[in-house]
């Protein structure tokens, strides 16, 4: 994908019905398009990212009538919901088209005139089954027992004069194009679906509605008693916004679009109606049409009546914009259906974001502060197998991202980035810089470990930028980069050896605060304090100097497991910022391993190691209780691991 510098990239989302309240489905496509647009901009390409709203048609007309306002006023009120959501979700669209704008209506009119003059449109009388309340036609095959398949009310035969686009004649040409261009319609299952649809005869397309039934639309230029069918109006947005028939130079530059992103429900309208319209206009076809899957919500279809519509704005407020963007693209392959739940979102945040990338950044910065004078290290060559493996993984990451994004495999691209993050975390654990720092003879090795880790993080920060723009910028800021943006294209910037030495790092707040899952509904485990849990007398006084001898640290429990043949003990790994401590804790009667992972605790870090059940325990956790543990000491705020406790 990354070729010459001034390549262009034109990506679109569907234009959303302005009536709707924006939901997760709208956010999904728009975030995906944003990632592609940002990625191509980072390659220094010329990008045009288009989204907008579909504002004509029956639903808007009816909703406006109900409110007693004009349809345009109704649209003006609703469009703001989309525009402000895109702002909040960090969507970097270059244009936002509304089908009620003159620049669009003019082009639709001209397109219709062209098609009329080319005799691609004809008038005919259509007879079908009409559902009066729904105001739409059904074919004989579609109705069920004389009733509307949608609302189950009786339908009646109706003949109506309308205008038709000669779509049927393009069937073979369209099939041929799909067969000759393997990646034109993706994913492959959707390509096969369209090919299957085209095996049958293709009907001509009714492109008008008589004004007496629907007024709120673009009038047909050759018959003012009719308005344009909403799909023909809407689809033209992809060329009207790009300058078709208004700014030919611009249009030449952008068209054909590189990717149209749509949901699976609007595949036929795009793959068949739109592509054949373009053929009739003698315009080249877009390079790719990708139909993504649908989200269910906790296993149920999302619907207003079930009251389970996910509001993206609320999700962003509660969990963070970047976390929400990440979740949608990481959770399921783009072409598949997926299930949304807040629990799944929180799990991803805690594991992939807080634990993996957040932890990698925070521990590295702590190490740089302690062992590298707070500066990014000077370049140095390592020769240990783990050095070579980390360099190789990070230096080749760009190619993997590039390949996956050209296939719109967002989930795979993110998995590749997380693979490097995991390798880097393991590298730190193996390298144990906190041990190396204790010995002057291992100073050079310490330098290598610090440098390799920081290089890897720098590459990660470059490549997560399209997905999580704020987090990427914050990572760079903490790594000491000034606001000045990178001018090199991503394929050059995200390379080993590009980290400038001597940047003053500045550790900030955790990149992704851990989210405490809501307590389970089951009643909490009851622990009755025993007599010796609440002793009546106090121990003898100690001096403040005695107390100061204790090195108490904030730790995060990264792993927990039961110890065989020891009912009361758990084996924990506690992250205290610069290192992981192995702790054998007598808390198994109070906590299961699952519920304790991710908890913030207080570790006595300078207690002499002890061997318990043959396992070395490198510290102790503060807990309430005597013999029976009542609960662990923890914090009301999120505190970075390693912070001292006094
Ligand atoms: N106005 C038309 C598109 C015209 S494009 C020339 C339209 N609008 S819409 O508001 O209904 O847009 C819906 C978009 O949201 C579609 O791409 C649809 O697939 C998507 N989704 C609606 N519900 C969805 C889910 N539950 N999950 C994922 N996407 C879903 O159609």
Description:
The chain is of the alpha+beta class and 646 residues long. Among the domains are: 321-493, Isoleucyl-tRNA Synthetase, Domain 1; 541-632, OB fold (Dihydrolipoamide Acetyltransferase, E2P) (Beta Barrel), CATH 2.40.50. The chain has 22 helices and 26 strands. The protein has a six-stranded parallel sheet, with helices on both faces. β4 and β5 (136-138) form a beta hairpin. α2 packs across α3 (71-88). The protein is elongated, with a radius of gyration of 31 Å. It binds 5'-O-[(L-methionyl)-sulphamoyl]adenosine (MSP). 5'-O-[(L-methionyl)-sulphamoyl]adenosine is lined by residues 14-17, 20, 25-26, 28-29, 54, 234-235, 262-263, 265-266, 294-295, 302.
What's the average pLDDT?
92
Q: Give me the secondary-structure category.
A: alpha+beta
* CATH C-level category of the domain at 321-493: Mainly Alpha
Assembly state:
single chain
Give the SSE map.
Blueprint: E1 8-17, H1 24-42, E2 46-54, H2 58-67, H3 71-88, E3 95-98, H4 102-117, E4 121-131, E5 136-138, E6 156-165, H5 171-180, E7 185-186, H6 188-197, E8 205-206, E9 208-210, E10 219-220, E11 223-228, H7 230-235, H8 237-240, H9 248-254, E12 259-263, H10 267-280, E13 289-292, E14 295-297, E15 300-301, H11 312-319, H12 321-331, E16 338-340, H13 342-371, H14 385-395, H15 397-406, H16 410-431, H17 433-436, H18 443-463, H19 469-478, H20 490-493, H21 544-548, E17 552-563, E18 566-575, E19 580-585, H22 593-596, E20 600-604, E21 610-612, E22 615-617, E23 620-621, E24 623-625, E25 629-632, E26 644-645
Parallel strand pairs: 1-2, 1-12, 2-3, 7-13, 12-13, 14-16
Antiparallel strand pairs: 4-5, 4-6, 6-8, 9-11, 10-11, 14-15, 17-18, 17-20, 17-26, 18-19, 20-23, 21-22, 24-25
Helix pairs in contact: 2-3, 11-12, 12-13, 12-16, 13-16, 13-18, 14-16, 14-18, 15-16, 16-18, 18-19
């Amino acid at each position: 994908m990354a070729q010459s510098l001034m390549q262009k990239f034109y990506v679109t989302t569907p234009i959303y019905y302005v009536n709707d309240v924006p939901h997760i489905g709208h956010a999904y496509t728009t975030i995906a398009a944003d990632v592609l647009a940002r990625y191509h901009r980072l390659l220094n390409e010329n990008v045009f990212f288009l989204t907008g709203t579909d504002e004509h048609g029956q639903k808007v007309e009816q909703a406006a009538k109900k409110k007693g306002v004009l349809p345009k006023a109704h649209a003006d009120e609703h469009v703001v919901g989309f525009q402000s959501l895109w702002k909040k979700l960090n969507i970097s669209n270059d244009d936002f088209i509304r089908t009620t704008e003159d620049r669009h209506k003019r082009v639709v009119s001209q397109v219709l005139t062209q098609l009329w003059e080319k005799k691609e449109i004809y008038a005919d009388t259509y007879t079908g089954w009409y559902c009066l309340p729904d105001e739409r036609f059904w074919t004989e095959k579609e109705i069920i027992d004389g009733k509307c398949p949608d609302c189950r009310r009786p339908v009646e035969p109706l003949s109506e004069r309308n205008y038709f686009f000669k779509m049927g004649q393009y069937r073979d040409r369209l099939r041929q194009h799909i067969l000759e261009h393997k990646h034109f319609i993706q994913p492959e299952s959707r390509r096969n679906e369209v090919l299957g649809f085209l095996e049958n005869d293709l009907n001509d397309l009714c492109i008008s509605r008589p004004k007496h039934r629907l007024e709120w639309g673009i009038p047909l230029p050759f018959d003012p008693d009719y308005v344009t069918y909403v799909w023909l109006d809407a689809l033209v947005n992809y060329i009207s916004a790009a300058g078709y028939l208004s700014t030919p130079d611009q249009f030449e530059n952008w068209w054909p679009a590189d990717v149209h992103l749509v949901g699976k429900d609007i595949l036929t309208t795009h793959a068949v109606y739109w592509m054949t319209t373009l053929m009739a206009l003698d315009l080249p076809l877009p390079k790719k049409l990708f139909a993504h899957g649908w989200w269910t919500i906790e296993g149920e279809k999302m619907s207003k009546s079930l009251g389970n519509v996910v509001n993206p704005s609320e999700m962003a407020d509660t969990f963070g914009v970047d976390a929400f963007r990440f979740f949608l693209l990481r959770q399921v392959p783009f072409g598949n259906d997926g299930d949304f739940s807040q629990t799944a979102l929180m799990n991803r945040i805690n594991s992939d974001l807080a634990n993996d990338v957040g932890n990698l950044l925070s521990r590295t910065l702590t190490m740089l502060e302690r062992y590298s004078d707070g500066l990014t290290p000077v370049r140095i060559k390592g020769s240990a197998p783990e050095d070579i493996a980390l360099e190789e993984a990070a230096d080749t990451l760009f190619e993997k991202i590039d390949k996956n994004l050209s296939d719109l495999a967002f989930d795979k691209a993110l998995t590749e980035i997380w693979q490097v993050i995991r390798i880097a975390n393991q590298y730190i654990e193996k390298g144990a810089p906190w041990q190396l720092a204790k010995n002057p003879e291992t100073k050079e090795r310490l330098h290598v470990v610090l440098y390799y880790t920081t290089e890897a993080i720098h590459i990660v920060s470059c490549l997560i930028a399209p997905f999580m723009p704020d987090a990427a910028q914050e990572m760079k800021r903490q790594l000491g980069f000034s606001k000045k943006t990178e001018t090199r294209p991503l394929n050059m910037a995200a390379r080993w050896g590009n980290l400038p030495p001597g940047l003053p790092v500045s550790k900030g707040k955790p990149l992704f605060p851990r989210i405490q899952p809501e307590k389970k509904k089951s009643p909490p485990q009851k622990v009755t304090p025993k007599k010796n849990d609440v002793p009546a007398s106090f121990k003898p006084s100690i001096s403040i100097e005695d107390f100061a001898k204790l090195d108490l640290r904030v730790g995060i429990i990264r792993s927990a497991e039961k110890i065989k043949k020891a009912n009361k003990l758990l084996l924990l790994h506690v992250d205290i910022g610069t290192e992981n401590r192995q702790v054998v804790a007598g808390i198994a009667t109070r906590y299961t391993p699952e519920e304790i992972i991710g908890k913030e605790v207080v570790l006595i870090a300078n207690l002499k190691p002890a061997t318990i059940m043959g396992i070395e325990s490198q510290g102790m956790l503060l807990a309430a209780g005597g013999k029976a543990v009542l609960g662990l000491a923890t914090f009301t705020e999120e505190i970075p691991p390693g912070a001292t406790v006094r």
